[in-house]
Amino acid sequence: MKTLLTPLPPVQPDPEAAMQERGGWLAWLVFHSLVLWHWVSWRHVCAWCQPMRRTSGNPLAWQTTHGCCDACLERLEREATATNSTTVKKP
Ligand SMILES: [Zn+2]
Question: What is the pTM of this model?
Fold first, then answer.
């Protein structure tokens, strides 16, 4: 019986696809290196907690950035709606 399928031509390595694959791998490496470097060097603390509480990041990081933790955000929202004010005093 004669088959209608013709054998596929041998797959040639596509230099452009290979370059893109290498570029994707490099982008992945750069992205994850940056994420890791950010985590290692930065500590996120809540500026509203006394004493300031770490919310995320490396506890031994040498750089600190300030934010607001969930508990403080909830408290601030509660105070703001209770007083119907957009400014809340920091404790
Ligand atoms: Zn807080």
Answer: 0.56
Q: How many domains does the chain have?
A: 1
Q: How far is the CA of 65 from the centre of ligand 1 (A)?
A: 13
Q: pLDDT tens string for the chain (91 positions)?
A: 566 777 777 777 787 877 777 789 999 999 999 999 999 999 999 999 988 899 988 899 999 999 999 999 999 899 988 887 666 666 6
Which residue is listed with tokens 């300030």? Answer: 66
CA of 72 to the centre of ligand 1 (A): 4
Q: Does 2 fall in a domain?
A: no
Q: Please identify every residue whose CB atom is under 5 Å from ligand 1, which is an ion.
A: 46, 48-49, 69, 72
Is there a domain that residue 53 lies in? yes
In Å, how far are 6, 15, 23 from 12, measured between CA atoms?
A: 17, 9, 20
Assigned domain for 38 exists? yes
